[in-house]
Structure formats: C-alpha cells, structure tokens
Amino acid sequence: MSDGHEHSGHEQVPSRRRTRFPGISSRAYEHPADRSALVALRKLTGFDTVFKALSGLLPERSLRLLFLSDSVRVSDEQFAHLNDMLRDACYILDLEKVPPMYVNQDPVPNAMCIGLDEPIIVVTTGLLELLDEEEMRAVVGHEVGHALSGHSVYRTILLFLTSLAVRVAWIPLGNLAIMAIVTALREWFRKSELSADRAGLLVGQDLQASMRGLMKLAGGHHLHEMNVDAFLKQAEEYEAGGDLRDSVLKILNVLPRSHPFTTVRAAELKRWAESRDYQRIMDGHYPRRSEDKDTSVTDSFRESASHYADHVKASKDPLMKLVSDIAGGAGDLGGRVRRGFGGFTGSGSAPKDGPTREDGDGNGAAGGTA
C-alpha cells in the first residue's frame, strides 16, 4: 500500500505516507449539485434494484465480455503498477471491494467507470502514455471516487432512461422533452466529474500532479511548454471575459459535453484544495458512510441551491452578473442588457460619463457595465 512503502525509480513519486480516510462517505467530496441528486436517488428504495434486474436489456454484459476478451485486465501479473495504484486508492477511500480494471488499446486519453451490478474501470493506452505515475494516481483515484459515489450505477440508469425516451421521440414535442432530459443529465455528469476530481486529489494528495494531469489533457505531452499559473489564468479569462454574447456562447459550447472544460476543472479543484472543507477532511473531520441513511434530501437540495446562489454572486461572467443584478433589484437593467450585447446590433454603446437616473421617483442609480 502507498500508505507507507517507499517508491524508487520514479522521480515524481513522493516517498511519503498518505492520509487514509476510514469509513469516508462520498458526501465528503461531492460537489453540492452532484450530492443533492445522489442523496435523492439513494432515498428511492429499490430504484436501482429494479434496473439492475433489467441489466440484461442493457449493453453492460456485452461490454464486460468485450473488455475481458479484447483488453488487458490489470492484476499483479499485468500492469502491476496500476494494480498497486488501484488497491492504494481503494485503501485510502476505504472502498472494500476493489473494482476490476482494464487497459484498452486506444490512442485517445480517456478513463471511465461503468456498470450496474458492480463498477468496472477502464483506462486507455493513450492516457497511460500521456501521464506520469503521480498524475495517473490522481486519475485512478478519480475513477474510484466515481465507484464510491455510485456514479456508475446511476449514470447507467439515467442513460437507460434517456435511451427509452429516444424511442418515443416521434411523439409530438418529444424532441424538446428529450433535449431537456439530456441537458439535465449532462449538467449532472459535469458536476459528478468535479466530484471525482476531488476524490482523485484525496487519493493522490498532490495538487500539482492533479494540475499537471489536467494540463496534459488540454495540451498533450508538452508539459515543459506549459505553466500552471498561466493555465489557471486562462480559466479566469474564460469566466470573466467578453460580453453577454460570449456568455451565451459558453453555454452553447458546454451543453453537448459530458465533462467540464479542463481549465475550469483545474480552477475548481484548486479552489477546493484551498478551502476549509478540504482541510477538514485531511484533518479527519468528514461525514461517514454510516450516517448516509440519515442524510436529509431537503438539506442537500438547500446546500445545492445555496452553492449556486453563491456561485452566481461571485461569478465574473457578464450573464451571471446580470442575473445577480436582477435578483438584487438593480436599476436600469434594460440599459445593462443593451450595453452587455455591445456591438451585436451596432447601436449598443454604453454612455461614457455620468450616472444614469431612474424615471418616476427621481432616485439615481450609478451606471455600470454588465
């Protein structure tokens, strides 16, 4: 186990003890939106059991046979270093049953955790060739985090429900309903990826390795040409830059994706690593699995709503700032929208000087950009 043994022959593998988290609940690291959805699903007794019984209708059995027959199963005899990482990750997060892991020949860097009856982890050769050992450790921890959260079960269930919806797309307005479901699912998927990134950090306990891995996913092998601080500045520029048109384009760009953009993931993980929540976990103060059954769905949704409200207030994105202004009852919102869209119509230039004044009661409101 990594919790004590020395590594040799790998320059970037720190020889140190890693903190273990006995009985840790996945609620400790889950993103609030991910957590609220999972708590609600877990309260539906028998929900996943019904769909597990229907697993014969799903391609899961076929996938398991495919990986068994055409990929390399990780073990003490094959990819032993990955097997050590997998057991370490399960030991650190106290996951009793170690999921089977396969290496699949694919030049595209990728990893996934799937399955209804039990999770299986698959990593591609492209990912193995891209990442160093500590970066890979964070990825393995990421996938074990998915397994501990039950993401593999609920993802498969929800994808199954989506596939059923597709079959009735001929019903009037069916496409709109399906798109609403798919959009909601992808939003949850993206939040579950942020949760798993946190689990990867808890396993690797090396923020720089996690940052490097995300940078490599964006820019490939050329780590010597990249810089973490500059990479994080990209995330800041992405969030704050542009006008309302760019805000709309950001939404359209992310809607079809199952994962958040890599710069956004890096910034989110760094913020969490610097938070009090992360430090409390490292100090041994975290929710236990034994308490999961007593978790309130209402409280979880309240935490999720509070998180989104705080996110909107703190965001530098022009659209989020406008939403915050609307919620706060700010004046001259029509002018703010026109200025936010700037040159979209060629007539949206903002006044250069002086405050604006509300009509009617004569109260002034300072002018500003959206």
In the predicted model, the low-confidence regions spanning at least 5 consecutive residues are: 1-15, 343-370
Helical content class: 55-70%
The helix/strand class is mainly alpha
Number of helices: 16
Order of helices and strands: HHHEHEEEHHHHHHHHHHHHEE
- How much strand? 5-15%
Largest sheet: 4 strands, mixed
Give the CA-CA distance, first to last residue. Answer: 53 Å
What does this structure look like?
With 370 residues, the protein is mainly α. Helix content is 56%, strand content 5%. It is built from 16 helices and six strands. It has a four-stranded mixed sheet with strand order 1-2-4-3, sandwiched between helices. Strand 3 (111-114) and strand 4 form a beta hairpin. Helix 4 packs across helix 6 (133-149) and helix 7 (151-167) packs antiparallel against helix 8. It is globular.
Summarize the entry for a quick read.
The protein is mainly alpha-helical.
Features:
two-stranded antiparallel sheet; single chain; 370 residues; mainly alpha; 56% helix; four-stranded mixed β-sheet; disordered C terminus; 6 strands
Annotate the secondary structure layout.
Elements: H1 32-43, H2 47-53, H3 60-70, E1 72-73, H4 80-92, E2 101-104, E3 111-114, E4 120-124, H5 125-130, H6 133-149, H7 151-167, H8 174-204, H9 207-219, H10 228-240, H11 244-254, H12 262-273, H13 276-282, H14 297-314, H15 318-327, H16 333-340, E5 356-357, E6 364-365
Parallel strand pairs: 2-4
Antiparallel strand pairs: 1-2, 3-4, 5-6
Helix pairs in contact: 1-8, 1-14, 4-6, 6-8, 6-9, 7-8, 8-12, 9-12, 10-12, 15-16
